[in-house]
Amino acid sequence: MKRLIIGILAVLIFATTAFFGYSKIKYQAYSADVSYEQATEIISKLSKEGMSEEFNAWDIQAIADDLYLISYSSEPVEDVYATDHSWILHNNVLVYEIKDGQLLHGEDLDKSIASKFNHNVKTFNEEKVSEEIPFEKVEQNSIRVLKGETAVLSKGEFGSKDIISKNTFVDGELVDTEVSEKVTKEAVSQVTLIGTYVAPPPPPPPKPATVNKPKTAVKSKRKLTWLNVKYNRNGSLAPWANKRYGRYSFPESGCVPTSLAIAMSGYNVHRLPDQIADQLHSQGLFNSGNYVGAGGKAVEYGLRDNGFSVNGLSSQGAVSSALARGNVVVAAVQSGKFGIRSGTHMIVLNGNDSGTTYVMDPTYSNKSSNASIASIWAAQSYDAIDRELGYVFYELIAPGLNPSDEDEKPIETEKPEKPLVPEIPVDPEKPVEPEKPVEPQEPEDTEDPNTGGEGSEQDEEDIENPVNENDEGSELSEDSPEEP
After folding, report:
1. Is the sign of the CA dihedral 246, 252, 255, 261 positive or negative?
2. Contacts of 141 (CB under 8 A, 6+ apart)
3. Quick one: angle between helices 296-304 and 273-282, nearest 10?
């Protein structure tokens, strides 16, 4: 009997312990009952995942085979966002976790899994679609293109953007979509030039060579060779007069290569205008397609290809300084300024005397004269092709030097070591006769580079290009007969 009583007590104690131990894990069956062993295994799994809550109040729901919703709650859970902490286990793997209303893990939970719930299980996904951004088409009038024609200055480029849709699902059903855009590449506008250029009439031959001294001598000048887009100095046609580059003749479009040839001659680098034109045309920088003439890139390439360094000048003061230190400057000026009527133009600047420089014009030789640097700066070209480098004034730096070297070595006018007129002793016994006035003499005209000589050059005081007698010495006259 005693043994029987002891056995019965042992069974009661074991049953009571098992019952109270089991009751510590509360769960709500959903689609299937969760056994004590299953609940224990699930809790054990969560403990390994870092779960820190005490095992005192749990709602464990079996959603489907190997799919469980576990919540730290003393009541059956209907909204996981209202619990302190909830998890979803699928195939014994933690796939979803939310705590205090914040989704910590599983925002991209498979929709097929999420759709099995009815507990406000929120999931998200992003869909990204790339789209092209069309480019804008811009038209600009340009004197670089023949009237009635067009040319593309810069090709348009499509941009691209990502359309991002952020979708919100509740229990696998789409409930909200937020759409945003992100530009991944900006579109580039296409710029088309509408031609306004009208070709000028052929220039007449130069007038009989007469040399007038400028009223104001310009200091720090270099000796430049006289060159013209069409004529030799003696009025005959230059070898390049009948050449064509692309659609245009050299006389109507060659102010850039001619100006560069003139400017280089001041550094004893002698090139003919058509030699430079050949260089530029081969690179697509001169009379390319529908374009007339050349722009800023052509100037820089033409100088560098012949050994020069180039210093872009972006202020009037910089132009004055470059000329004062004895360097030649080439400049692009507006239509209607300094002779040219139907397009922008390039001229050569040489020397600086108190703000006055000598302008050598490769097309309108009778327009060559002294002009104020301020007036030239005010007349600078704003054409897009002229300004493609950001400036239209270019200082030539002698081959082998750089701008800093040139600053340290300004050009100085050479002075004779001995007097030009020898001193004659005065005999005190003879009366001194009054000096006779010296008759002015015309300077000898040097030979043109195309008629057998090394090329005529500017004298330090005399300018070998014809100058209008009515020129005032500070601005170029517009009254003389026009030559293109």
Report:
1. positive
2. 193, 194, 196
3. 110
**CA–CA separation, 317 vs 190, rounded Å?**
35
Element (H, E) at 23: helix 2-23
- What is the C-alpha to C-alpha distance for residues 335 and 379, in angstroms, rounded to an integer? 9
| Sign for the pseudo-dihedral over CA of 217, 222, 227, 233 | positive
Residue where the block lists tokens 């929709």: 111
pLDDT band at 187, cuts 50/70/90?
very high
Per-residue pLDDT at 173 exceeds 80: yes
217: phi then psi, degrees, rounded to nearest 5: -70, 135
Closest by alpha carbon to 116, among 32, 178, 39, 37?
A: 32
Residue 87 DSSP SS3? strand
CA atoms within 13 A on the CB side of 121: 30
CB 467 within 8 A of CB 214: yes
CATH label, 200-408, candidates 3.30.70.1170, 3.20.20.140, 3.90.70.10, 3.30.470.20: 3.90.70.10
Q: 147 near 197, Cβ under 8 Å? A: yes
Measured CA to CA, the distance from residue 286 to residue 456 in angstroms comes to 27
pLDDT (0 to 100) of residue 482: 36
Copy the structure tokens of residue 421. Answer: 């007129």
On whether the CB atoms of residues 311 and 319 are closer than 8 A, the answer is no
- pLDDT tens figures, 419-459: 333 333 444 444 444 444 434 333 333 344 544 433 334 44
Q: Give me the helices (H) in 195-253, please.
A: 250-253
Q: How many other β-carbons are positioned within 10 Å of the β-carbon of residue 19?
A: 9
| Residue 166 and residue 178 in contact, taking contact as beta carbons nearer than 8 Å | yes
- What one-letter code names the amino acid at 446? T
* pLDDT (0 to 100) of residue 426: 40
What is the residue type of 295?
Answer: G
pLDDT tier for residue 35 given thresholds of 50, 70 and 90? low
Name residue 403's amino acid: P
Cite the beta strand spans of 361-400 per DSSP E. 369-372, 393-397
Question: What pLDDT is recorded for position 156?
Answer: 92
Can you say how many angstroms the Cα of residue 269 is from the centroid of all Cα atoms in its chain?
32
Rounded to an integer, the average pLDDT of 5-22 is 50
User: Cα(270)–Cα(38) distance, rounded to whole angstroms?
Assistant: 99
Measured distance CA(146)–CA(292) in Å, rounded:
7
The domain at 129-196 falls in which architecture? Single Sheet (2.20)
Q: In the chain, where are the structural domains located?
A: 23-120, 129-196, 200-408
